[in-house]
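Single Protein Entry

Contents — chain, fold
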Amino acid sequence: MMIDDVRKFKNKIAENAVIGPFSKTEDPAFIEIMGYAGMDFVILDLEHGPNNIQILQNLVRAAQIGGILPIVRVKEGIINDIGEALDIGAGGVSVPQITNPDEAARVIRAARFAPDGNRGVCRFVRAAKYSSTDRFQYFRESNELVIILQIEGEEALSNLDDILAVPGFDILFIGPYDLSQSIGYPGQIDHPEVIKRMKHIVKKSIENNIIVGTFVDTIENAKKWKEIGVRFISYSVDVGIFYESCCDLIKQVK
């Protein structure tokens, strides 16, 4: 855990939009390169990616070397993943498929030490520099790590006000693809009904002083949602970015 990086990230997003990709790679070099390129964060994906906690630990190290905030998206419904991700030094966690305030509160309890939560206590972990960090400093600073709640369906929309009222999380993240599927337009993230619901979430979040994030996979959508008020811009996935770059290169050379 590098608390200075977390604080730098929070200061930046309080004033401006930040950008970073999801990642499904197992290669730490790719993560390090993202930092050198100027990305603000990377979401290391356990939900849809092939990685496990052992591989993840080296990806987190690479992010810290490259100066990019490592955020881990845990698997849906597996609360234990939260503590594991934070123990290895992640700067935050992103938790999918939050549908109601009880689930939101459960996430926060799992990610915070007392008095803010009940995260399992162990200071002999990488995040505490294997016990070399003062234990009380470690417990205190760990409660500053980033918590992102992902809302991705109709049930979450119906409980939006109650979710927004839960104290202790940093970013509300809209999952447009799952949302599009939930309302009957799977994959159509630019459908007017999907856009309507996303704009509603953004508006309500801003009214409640909650920072909003979303996933985009085009430059046009990144600019659009930034203008609407989204500050946490998750731009595509590293493997997709690499694929598109390869395709563009081939087109230009041939």
